[in-house]
Design goal:
The complex is a heterodimer of chains A (274) and B (221). Chain A is of the alpha/beta class. Chain A has two domains: 170 residues, Rossmann fold; 76 residues, no CATH class. Helices cover 40% and strands 23% of the residues of chain A. The longest helix of chain A has 16 residues. Chain B is an all-alpha fold and 221 residues long. The chains are: A alpha/beta (274), B mainly alpha (221). The complex binds adenosine-5'-triphosphate (ATP) and magnesium ion. Magnesium ion binds next to helix 3 of chain A. Chain B: This is Amino acid ABC transporter permease.
Chain lengths: 274, 221
């Protein structure tokens, strides 16, 4: 009920483009984003609004620019043009239009949490310390506070029994759940997932998707690049389809999966959903 | 008195030499480690104006015989009105020389450091300095542990060169005893024993540290 309400507000505010990026209902606002690598355009004038509490999944075939789009959101990749606002704050470029100083950039980045396909845990730290590292050394939290919070999060992802284990002893699914807890520990305003289950053995995919589903039920804002169609359909508020760097379709999951408006998406779904 | 009895009666001289060697070694190797870490940090920046001269310096040092560096600091610097006594020249030469070796060892490991971990650190709001000291350096040290252990032994052996610039250390003690009583074989055998014992103890300590790294999955790297 509450969600319906916010969606209408945001929809009406969308008619005022410049302010839409600054309402506190919009978690992420992407405008006219373009990016090329070595002269090849990978993202072309991408516009995307993600409201607070929404789950947006990004689909598209390999090489369509999904990872690049996600990585631009936290400035791991620098776009050539366009703007990205996170919680109303522009990332990467300061008010004077210059590149952001590194410290400020780090602070804005910390408002997003990212989960990678290949986990990227820090192997010299045990599970608990992987989760507390950034809160202590980036946010300046006390050790006690960070550990208490980390234990809650490990509980949430079902990894509290492994708090003292080192990453090299964990399965892929366990690693990814720790990586999710690690990102959550920064209390980000939006979670970014880049194919979080693509590196996993099929029997381990479910445990990670279940955790992400729980997060969506708790109201986390998430942008998820995935190849899991059933999951996308179940969890999304909005599905975005990228094709050669263009968003060619954005719709609610029902419309997207049952009645897509482009031939390209229809073809894609025929191949993916058997 | 047998030759061994002569040496036994002069044991204080050996002990003094030994402690002097350990002092020089401890101080210079700590400084060398810090220099190696510092150079790795400077190489992180990838500003060619800094990294190119730094790498030339590191390679230049590595390709220089240690003894010549020690000579240069002791006999050459006074020409520029910088006077270091023998002891400080020795410590300084060891520190800089082995610092460059450490830097090169670290640099090699840094090249194969997984970029995904750096991206994860950036995504979690880490800035360069904290990322380096909390995440990159500890792993690089754990990973290069066997090479570092080797380098410690080289550095220990290099302290013996300092006898030539008149530093009173272990080899100098043996040298002076063998000269006074003309018993070179026995005097140097004793000294070899000292170097071996220290090296073996260091090897054992490094092995123990290996367990610490192995627990973190670092021994197959
Ligand atoms: N750092 C880079 N340098 C050069 N080209 C790049 C770089 N990163 C991505 N690309 C190219 O940009 C295009 C889009 O890549 P991207 O990784 O965003 O695709 P994707 O949709 O995530 O694909 P996948 O499903 O395979 O992960 C690809 O053609 C890729 O080769
Ligand atoms: Mg990708």
């Amino acid at each position: 009920m509450f969600e319906k309400n916010t969606s209408e507000q945001t929809a009406s505010e969308k008619t005022v483009p410049d302010d839409a990026a600054r309402t506190d209902r919009t978690a992420v606002s992407i405008r006219h984003l373009s990016k090329s690598f070595d002269g090849v355009e990978v993202l072309r004038d991408v516009d995307l609004e993600v409201r607070e509490g929404d789950v947006v999944t990004i689909l598209g075939s390999s090489g369509s620019g999904k990872s690049t789009l996600l990585r631009c959101i936290n400035w791991l990749e620098q776009p050539d043009s366009g703007s990205i606002h996170i919680g109303g704050q522009r990332i990467g470029v300061n008010d004077a239009g210059r590149p952001m100083p590194v410290r400020e950039l780090a602070q804005v980045r910390a408002r997003t949490g990212m989960v990678f396909q290949s986990f990227n845990l820090w192997p010299h730290l045990n599970v608990l310390h992987n989760v507390t590292e950034a809160p202590i050394y980036v946010l300046g939290k006390s050790k006690a506070e960070a550990e208490a919070h980390a234990r809650e999060l490990l509980e949430k992802v079902g990894m509290s029994a492994k708090a003292n284990a080192y990453p090299s002893t964990l399965s892929g699914g366990q690693k990814q759940r720790v990586a999710i807890a690690r990102a959550l520990a920064m209390q980000p305003e939006v979670m970014l997932f880049d194919e979080p289950t693509s590196a996993l053995d099929p029997e381990l995919v479910g445990e990670v998707l279940a955790v992400i589903k729980d997060l969506s039920a708790e109201g986390y804002t998430m942008i998820i690049v995935t190849h899991e169609m059933a999951f996308s359909r179940a969890v999304s508020d909005k599905v975005v389809f990228l094709d050669k760097g263009l968003i060619i379709e954005q719709a609610d999951p029902e419309t997207f999966f049952t009645n897509p408006s482009t031939e390209r998406v229809r073809k894609f779904l025929e191949r993916e959903v058997i | 008195m047998s030759n061994w009895e002569i040496l036994w009666s002069a044991r204080d001289q050996f002990w003094r030499g030994f402690f002097s060697t350990m002092e020089i070694f401890g101080l210079s190797i700590s400084a060398a480690f810090a220099i190696g870490c510092g150079m790795l940090y400077l190489l992180e920046g990838s500003r060619p104006r800094l990294t190119v001269p730094l790498r030339v310096f590191i390679d230049g040092m590595r390709m220089l015989p240690f003894l010549i560096l020690a000579y240069l600091l002791y006999y050459g610097l006074p020409a520029f009105d910088v006077r270091l006594d023998a002891w400080w020249s020795g410590v300084g030469a060891l520190a800089v020389y082995h610092g460059c070796y450490f830097a090169e060892i670290f640099r090699g490991a840094r090249l194969t450091f997984p970029p995904g971990q750096v991206e994860a650190a950036k995504a979690h709001g880490f800035t360069k300095g904290k990322m380096f000291f909390r995440l990159i350096l500890p792993q690089i040290v754990m990973q290069t542990r066997p090479l570092l252990g080797n380098q410690l032994i080289y550095a220990l052996k290099d302290t013996a060169f300092l006898v030539i610039i008149t530093v009173q250390e272990l080899t100098a003690a043996a040298n002076s005893l063998s000269g006074t009583y003309f018993i070179p074989t026995e005097a140097f055998i004793v000294v070899i024993g000292f170097y071996w014992v220290v090296s073996v103890v260091m090897e054992i300590i490094i092995k123990q540290c290996g367990r610490f790294s192995a627990k973190r999955g670092f021994d197959n790297v």
